[in-house]
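ok so i was messing around last nite and threw this chain in just to see what happens. nothing serious, just curious
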Amino acid sequence: MNNERWTHSNTTIFNIAYHIIWCPKYRRKVLVNEVEDRLKTLLVEKAKEIGCEISIQEVMPDHVHIFIKTKPTLAPHYIVQQLKGYTSRILRKEFPKLKSRIPTLWTRSYYCESIGHISEETVKKYINDQKNV
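result:
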């Protein structure tokens, strides 16, 4: 993917992005120092592997924010599942202290909001105005 507004495939032109947030189990403040640095690297690595691009990310001690651009064939749930599963497995292996602090690295829940260049109101107005053209 690239930094232009639109992405093209053989049959589609799209601009799909999500703001995704998730937390460690019990909202423990374990995402610090070398764990934070490694997590950022792993997220970019896995996103690229599944065909996404993380435009920006911020790792706080007790939660993660990412703004990710993707293709229309990838569901948000799949993206989150891949990122959380991959990072949990590797971080818990590389940092055994994480295993002793919490039973699993991530909670099962997450927040996801679709982000686009055009507002919801603009899209609704455009659709409503179609018959008037």
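not much to say yet. The mean pLDDT is 92.
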